[in-house]
Amino acid sequence: MRNTSGGVVALVVAGMLALSGCTGDAADGEATGDGRAGVPVGTARTATGSMAETTSDTPGDAEAGGTVTLVLRSVEVSQQTMTVRWATRWDDDEAEPDSAVSYYDLGLGAAATVIDATNLKAYRPFCTEGAWQEGAAEAGACKASMLTSVRDEVFTKFPNHGTVEGWAAFPAPEGKPATVDVIPVEGLAGFTQAEVTYLDGDS
């Protein structure tokens, strides 16, 4: 990681995933029994602000050089839904201007994670099928039906010098924490103590 800016400190993803793995609460984002997500989700909007950003050397495929910049745009809660928005940019001056790389090329995952470190709870996106903690098959079905901007890690591409906006919908965190830790993209550095905005006036 080369640099970090903004009021949120970048955190190495491995450490955040270790915390997520020991909480046992990642199933909060699973679907209800009838195969539909537990709460309605509003239309995703584009956010242009920046809470924080981090730039790191491009991971994964040895043929993809340059850097990847991850920008955390917002963490907002409205009623029963928490929406996280971010942007990702791949820059490689040595590559062709029209080149592109995928999540798969870079060894990245599309399932975002939000962690409430104070209350030791981890949240993953809502899904319409399967469940995060019911075995590999159910978790795979949940991942394939996440309420996120990206589910396909092979065909979703990052264009060279282009910014890709992303979002994911999660259950609203219990206890209304003031801050959470966020991993928008599996395999890239996440963000700690990201301020949560409660759109319904709660804090």
Please describe the topology of this protein.
Layout: E1 3-6, E2 9-11, H1 13-23, E3 52-57, E4 67-78, E5 81-91, E6 100-102, H2 103-106, E7 113-116, E8 121-123, H3 136-144, E9 157-159, E10 162-171, E11 179-183, E12 190-195, E13 197-198
Parallel strand pairs: 4-13
Antiparallel strand pairs: 1-3, 2-12, 3-4, 4-5, 5-10, 6-9, 7-8, 7-11, 11-12
List keywords for this structure.
203 residues, mainly beta, 6-stranded mixed beta sheet, 5-stranded antiparallel beta sheet, disordered N terminus
In short:
The chain is mainly beta. The protein has one domain (3-198). The chain is built from three helices and 13 strands, in the order ββαββββαββαβββββ.
Q: What this model shows, in words?
A:
The protein has 203 residues and is mostly beta strands. The protein has one domain (3-198). 12% of the residues lie in helices and 35% in strands. It has three helices and 13 strands, in the order ββαββββαββαβββββ. It has helices at residues 13-23, 103-106, 136-144; strands at 3-6, 9-11, 52-57, 67-78, 81-91, 100-102, 113-116, 121-123, 157-159, 162-171, 179-183, 190-195, 197-198. Strands 1, 3, 4, 5, 10 and 13 form a six-stranded mixed sheet that branches. The chain has a five-stranded antiparallel sheet with strand order 2-12-11-7-8, covered by helices on one side. Strands 6-9 form a two-stranded antiparallel sheet. Strand 11 and strand 12 (190-195) form a beta hairpin. The longest helix has 11 residues, at 13-23. It is globular. The two termini are 32 Å apart. 41% of the residues are buried. Residues 1-28 and 30-46 have low confidence and may be disordered.
